[in-house]
Amino acid sequence: MATRRFRVPAALVATAAALTLGATTAASAVAPSSTTVTPAGHSFAAKLNGKATFTAGSTTMTCTVSASVPNGGSTNQIPAAPGNHNAAGPVSAAINPPTFSGCTTSIFGVGVTVTSNATNGQWSISAQYGSPISAGLTMPKGGVVIKTSGLASCTLTASPGGPTSVPGTWTNGSPSKLAIANAPVAATGTGGFLCPTGNQTATFSATYDVTDTTDAAQQITVTS
Asked: What is the pTM of this model?
């Protein structure tokens, strides 16, 4: 799948807000914690660790390669200080649409291609410090299009009505990871026999390794 962007989403451009328990008065109040993403100003890449799956109805599409990488522009870059810190919410960054390849379907005799785009807006990735650390992709309208061929000729368009936040969790490490597990994504399908048609609630699962491409010796880290 082609194209790119970042906001930890979702992307493939994902907003996710993690809430932590705050001070209470007469009733308990919930307030977002502060978030800092380092190293400030560094570029990063997100590359699939394992498999990415899209499931719509009884059909599952599986891809073995997916990535969002810098292209020399302002995408896939942690904001420079002080923009890499938010005292009361998530930190986000634009990313290039994640590409997808090595894709197959759960239906025998059916081929599949998965294509991403930024035609209708930016992909992004965001992170919110907490326990766990919340993270995700924001996918623009129509940001992923899945087409099958063979026994079933189908088209599935993700996020048809507007931007979609694809929630996940973040783990600091070497490399750090963004994990998305069965996140719901609105979709609409067209086609004939064996195709998921009409409005769908598809699910997306994937784990991405997020690495520093400015300095490979450093790690992308989310703290308070």
From this structure: 0.85
